[in-house]
Amino acid sequence: MKNLLLPILTLPLLAACTIKVEPSDKPINVNLNITHDIRIKIQNEVEDVLNDDELF
Question: pLDDT tens digits for 7-55?
Fold first, then answer.
């Protein structure tokens, strides 16, 4: 009898704890400043190499 009573008593508790997932109405922002920073660093390094007198 105890094995039958436990699921019957826990069922209302589980039904009361439902999880609700909804999508956000706000847009997702992606910060792309990282690629810009890398591009500037590479450009500066290339300019340094091209301006090096020992290269040619």
Answer: 777 777 666 667 788 888 888 887 766 666 778 888 888 888 888 777 5
Q: Which amino acid is at 29?
A: N
**Residue 32 domain boundaries:** 27-56
Number of structural domains the chain divides into: 1
pTM for this model (two decimals): 0.34
* 49 contacts: CB under 8 Å, gap ≥ 6: 55
Q: Report if residue 54 sits inside a domain.
A: yes
Residue 16 lies in a domain: no
For the chain, the three-class secondary structure string (H helix, E strand, C coil) is CHHHHHHHHHHHHHHHCCCCCCCCCCCCCCCCHHHHHHHHHHHHHHHHHHCCCCCC
